[in-house]
Amino acid sequence: MTLPKKVVFASGNRGKLAEVERLLADYDIEVVSQSSLGIEGAVEDGKTFAANSLIKARHAAARSGLPAIADDSGLAVDALDGAPGVYSARYAGPDATDADNIDKLLSALAGVAGGQRRAAFHCAASFVDPAGGEPLVVQGVWPGRILEARQGDGGFGYDPVFFDPVSGKSAALMSAAEKNAVSHRGQALAALVTAIKASYDVARYEGR
Q: What is the reported pLDDT for 95?
């Protein structure tokens, strides 16, 4: 078997889709979103990022008949005992916008000193092929801290308030290439591509 030519990404999030497309571009894999295929989102009732990621990948693969990639990611803040965690996308409520979630986070950390604002982005990425084989699940972590105010308008989610100590920038001020090189999702998806390649006949991809 060779690497799949087409996979469905189990999300309608344009920011995430763009990151996945960039990471898979070198492997001639076409990525389509599940929303473009009319597939509704899965019920994410897992207790961990890995569990939710696998739920979403299995759902998309079953509905589309295509190999599926899914990720589940979120922000864990030390001072908030790991919150918002798996509820990051809906931290401020089921219909919360990114701005709503950031506002709630900054409010929750009001008065917390910079040295106590440690946080990390976590990502679990999964691959499920409906033709068979064991599901693949990998994870990535991006440590940093939460800023006291937004910096930059790039990226999505909590990027404007997440400070990367290596680059000295908020995630929202980083270029796509900079972010993919160090981010939780970049780490997880790069590891997932490696795992996918290992599970297929990838002789023609050697040397890339």
A: 92
Is the distance from CB of 172 to CB of 155 less than 8 angstroms?
A: yes
Q: Which residues partner with 8 through β-bridges?
A: 32, 68
131-168 pLDDT, tens digit per residue, is 888 899 999 999 999 999 999 999 889 999 999 999 99
Q: At residue 208, does pLDDT exceed 50?
A: no
Is the model's pTM score more than 0.70?
yes
Alpha-carbon torsion (81, 48, 165, 153), positive or negative: negative
Mark residue 60 as left, alpha or beta (left: phi above 0; alpha: psi -120 to 50; beta: remaining): alpha
In contact, 61 and 53? CB cutoff 8 Å: no
Which of 71, 72, 129, 159 is catalytic? The answer is 72
SS3 (DSSP) at 15? helix
Catalytic status, residue 153? no
Q: Determine the CATH number of domain 6-205.
A: 3.90.950.10
CA distances from 156 to 66, 69, 119, 199 (A): 27, 20, 17, 32
pLDDT of residue 204: 40
